[in-house]
Amino acid sequence: MRFSLSTVLPLAMAISASAQGTTSVYTEPKTGIAFETYMDPTGYAFGIALPTTPSTDFVGLLVGKGKGWAGVSLGGSMINKLLIAAWPSGTSLISTFRETPRIGNPPEANGSYTMTPIAAGTYTNATHWSYAFLCKGCILADGTTFASNASTDVLGWAFATAAPTMPAAHGSALPKHSTQGNYGMSFSAARTAKYATYAALAGAPATTPRAFNA
């Protein structure tokens, strides 16, 4: 099923609980990028676009609302997996990589992976915020993420209505998520011949602090 551009976000809010756990194509209206996307009634969404032969990179979309943070586990669970989180700080968006060996506030992760914002898809408005990005070196072979050759796998998600302790700081402590879960992502459906065009929309790699004008 392909959602129309004008209805996809309101539709996400109206999806019943019984429909959770599925992904569908969502074309982000400001960039034209077609993401294979999971959307939750909370307003949370995560989408991904991959090259036809995936390697280490992907184009991602993380959506939330209000002042809270949204996150995705690229390996399904919270523990010992590569996590990505983002949240608004004024009219900017902050992003961070996290990893933790135990339940609790995950510290920032250190690695060769980078996130680069796609300006047109990175914004805040009265109903939600959106962070579109190129993630380079983010598909790892050490089991902390999904495998590059996976057709499907389980990803994890988390959403908090409360803002991070220090919203302007990418290393801020994150309040406990108010909702979370898992869903099956179709990576085969996320593969697209337009990937190079999508990736080229990204700007320069993010540097500290990871604040992107929305």
TrEMBL record:
It holds the Pfam family CDH-cyt. It comes from the Eukaryota. Residues 1-19 form the signal peptide. This is CBD9-like protein. It comes from Mollisia scopiformis. Keywords: Signal. Residues 26-196 form the Cellobiose dehydrogenase-like cytochrome domain. The keyword Disulfide bond does not apply. SUPFAM superfamilies: CBD9-like.
